[in-house]
Amino acid sequence: MRKKIVSVLILSILLILCFEILTTSKEILNSVSFSISVWKNNIFPSLFPFFIMSELLIEYGFVEFIGELLKPVMVYLFKANPNTAFIFIMSLISGCPSNAKYTKELLNQKLITEKDATKILMFSHFSNPLFILGTVSLVFLNNKEAGLLVLLCHYSVNLVIGVLFRSYLPSKKEPVQVSFQNAILKMHQKRIQNPKNFGMILTGAILNTIQTLLLILGTITIFLVLTTIIDKNMNLSTFHQGILNGMIEMTQGLKYLSALHIPLSLKSTLTAMILSFGGFSVHMQVMSILSDTKVKYAPFLFSRIIHATLSALLVYFLFEPWMMTICL
Q: Residue 54: its pLDDT value, please?
C-alpha cells in the first residue's frame, strides 16, 4: 500500500510540474536560456580541456606517478588510497563536479575501490578557482579581495574535512617510502601495458567528456526550471529567495545574492556557504556520474553541510581583519 501511495505522489508531482511548465512558459524559457548560457560560457570552457587531459593522464600512468610521490600525504594525513591524490589535485584545479568524473575513471580502471571513492568525494569538492576569482569576485561580489578570501576559506576547509574524517573508511596500511625512480617506473609500466593507441584513447576521452558535460547541462537546466517554479509559487523575499535558490542551484542563488543591498561581509559569507554546499544540482550531477557504482551519497552530503558551515564561519570572522590587512 505504501509503495502505491509513493507512486501516486510521484505521478502527481510530475503532473503538477508539467502544468507549471505549460503555464509559465516564458519564465521557463528564460531559465533554460540562462542554464545554456552558464554551461556554454563557464562550465564547458573550464571543464572540457580538463576532462580530456584527465583521461589521457590516467591512460598514460600519471595516477601511479602522482600517487607514488604524494603517498605520505594521502596515507599519513588522510589515511586514503595514494591513487586518490590524482582526484584531489585535478579537482582542486578544475572544480566540481569533476571530482566525480575523475573518481569514476579511476573506479573503471580499478585503481581505487568504492570505499576509497566514497572517502575522497568528501574532501575533493572544490569550486573552479577561475570561477571564484573571476565571476564570483568581479561580477557577484564586485570585490576581488573578498573573492580571494572566499577562495582560501573554501579550499582550506576541504583539508580540514579530510583530516577530521581520516579514520573513516581508512585505506589498508602500506609501507610509505617515496621514490621518484619508482614513480617513473610505475608510470612507464602503465604506458607499455596499455593496449590502446593514442587515437583510440583520444576518441574515447572526447566521447566520454561530451557525454558527461551534456549530463551536467541537463541537470543544471532541470534544477533551474525547478527554482523558477518555486519562485513563482512562493512569496519569498529576495534574500530568502537567494538562499533557497542557492541550496538548489548554486549559480542562480549567487546571482540573486549579488543583487541584494547587504553588507559585503554578509554577502561574502553567504557566497562561501553556497559555494561549499554546491547546491543539490551539483549533488545530482555527482551522483548521476556515479550512478552505476555503490559509492554512498550520505557521507558526501554530510561533508558538504560541514563544508558550508565552516567556510561561512571562517569568512565571517576573518572578513574584517582580512580586508584591513589586504588594504594596508
A: 86
Q: Provide mean pLDDT across the span 257-272.
A: 91
Residues 6 or more apart from 277 whose CB is under 8 A from it?
246, 247, 250, 304, 305, 307, 308
Neighbours of 2 (CB within 10 A): 6
Cβ within 8 Å of residue 78, ≥6 positions away: 119, 123, 162, 163, 166
Contact 150, 132 (CB under 8 A): yes
Nearest residue to 247 (alpha-carbon basis) of 293, 312, 294: 312
Task: Tell me the H-state helices in the chain.
Answer: 2-23, 25-38, 44-59, 62-69, 71-72, 84-94, 98-108, 114-122, 129-130, 144-164, 180-193, 198-233, 238-248, 250-258, 264-277, 279-289, 298-326
Contact status, residue 20 vs residue 229, Cβ threshold 8 Å: yes
How long is the chain?
328
**C-alpha cell of 28?**
521557463
**In this predicted structure, what is the pLDDT of residue 328?**
59
Task: Give the dihedral sign, CA 107/116/160/284.
Answer: positive
Query: How far is residue 207 CA from its own chain's centroid?
Result: 21
Task: Give the up-direction half-sphere exposure of residue 151: CA atoms within 13 A in the CB hemisphere.
Answer: 20
In contact, 158 and 123? CB cutoff 8 Å: yes
145-157: average pLDDT: 94
- Range 246-281 burial, b when 16+ CB lie within 10 A, else e: bbbbbbbbbbbbbeeeeeebebbbbbbbbbbbbbbb
pLDDT: which is higher, 19 or 159: 159
Q: How many CB atoms lie within 10 A of CB 13?
A: 10
Q: Does the CA dihedral 284-290-294-298 come out positive or negative?
A: negative
* Distance of alpha carbon 300 from alpha carbon 285, whole angstroms: 13
pTM, two decimal places: 0.87
